[in-house]
Amino acid sequence: MRMFRLGWPAWARPADIGDLLRLSVPIAFTRMSQMLMGVTDAIVLGQFAPGELPYILNSWLPMGVSLGLGIGILLGVQVLTSELLGIGREGESGRIFRRGFVTSLVLGVVLMAVVYFSAGALFHWLFVDIAPKTEAVDQADPELVASSVAHVTRILSLGLVGFMISTVCSYYLEALRRPLLVTAVMYFGVFLNLGIDLALVGGFWGFEPMGAEGVAWATTGSRWALTLVMLVLVLILTPALTRSTRKAAPNEARRQLSVGSGTAISNIAEWGGFNLTYIIATWISLAANTVYGYAIQMMGLCFMFYLGIASATSVRVAEAYGRGNVAEIRDAGRLGVAATVLMGVILGVLVVLFNHTLAGLLVRDSAVLNGVQLAPAIAGLLAYAAVATLFDGLQATSSFALRAQEVIWSPSVIHIGSFFLVMIPACYWLGIVREGGATGMMLGVMLGVFTAGSLQTILLEWKTARQASQRAA
Of 135, 209, 396, 464, which residue is least crowded by CB atoms under 10 Å? Predict the structure, then answer.
């Protein structure tokens, strides 16, 4: 039966909506926990050392690229496990997990070494060698910024191995439809991170306040703690160690890496692009970086809702793809896009209505950095962030749905073009050349995510129409 009464589309079946919600809500809360760690760090710094927020934000240039690469490369664990689940062979998925675990271990060690030993040279080049001169009165000593950011980055890099391992564990559990376990562990990490933040940044319980360095140690320590818990759960509760008597398909290992390779490139483009904008904002001034950075943090928090929808859509599309059901693939993708648009409208309205309240949550109302009142300036940018976040969500859901069908490189090309050829030049032009400051930076971000979201959604619909026509023929 293709249509419901009242003209409801086939992809809006209540059973499918319920399935999407059952998957997306836990995944969204799980993914949000990762962003909540960053937001918690920013809030605690905003209360005790707001001038050091740029050190943390800029450190995420190499860290964000590393995390995005790992999240993409390891995505094959989720996709292939979902396919096995879709055909009732999840008991064979242990080899998928074990292969992913070895990959995560090697990748984590390599990335940790690269980031740790290159941080000093990278940030000296960015803030001393090539930084444009501006007239901002609050521009910090570039040597101090470079050394401080490099120090924080080295501490954060020590958690990269743990991050890679925990990513494999969470992908595996979610694909086996046990996302609530992942959610519980991740929020344990959030609260642990907050406790360490209060001790090492706020000076609670007799500890010496360490500012941005304390935030870095909190992030690294909590990451390793939740990694160990997640790994124990996987080993006890899943077929991770089960040896299958059935041989894997000859190309399974290659597929496991290739499915996520396009996502890795897209993540590098998106995360690297966004984190490069922090560098540009710091070139403007420390105040511009802080105001813009807090607005992007709120935008990132909203993105976690979209990431839940995108991940759930990916699982549902992958299951249908494993069954070879073209109609289910189409309906799962369209439902994900529709849910993203609805979520975008809701979040956008809430951000606009409560922009001053949200800004006050991020920093004290009285917080001033080199003559700039932070809370009102942040509140002003949140209206732009509310619009941008909808298209950021669309690009995530559509690209996830495409990759679940093994459409790898086209979404990556769109991401590279949108973030490196549109967003970064627009941010530089509007923020520095046109002297738009933090507002100009946010307008540049809007242009980038609008391009990415629109093109990814068009590509998904074109792919759907093409599949339908091929099936009809």
Answer: 135
Threshold 0.85, pTM exceeds: no
Residues 6+ apart with CB under 8 A from 329: 317, 320, 321, 405, 464, 467
Per-residue tokens: 61: 């240039």
- Taking alpha carbons only, the member of 266, 257, 265, 278 closest to residue 396 is 266
Instruction: Please name the residue that has the structure tokens 């609260």.
Output: 191
Q: Tell me the CA distances in angstroms from 92 to 80, 173, 191, 297, 323, one per residue in order.
A: 11, 14, 35, 40, 17
Q: CA–CA separation, 106 vs 95, rounded Å?
A: 17
Q: What angle do CA 202, 207, 212 make, to 5 degrees?
A: 50
Angle between helices 252-284 and 94-124 (to 10 degrees): 30
Q: What's the distance, Cα to Cα, between the start and end of the chain in Å?
A: 21
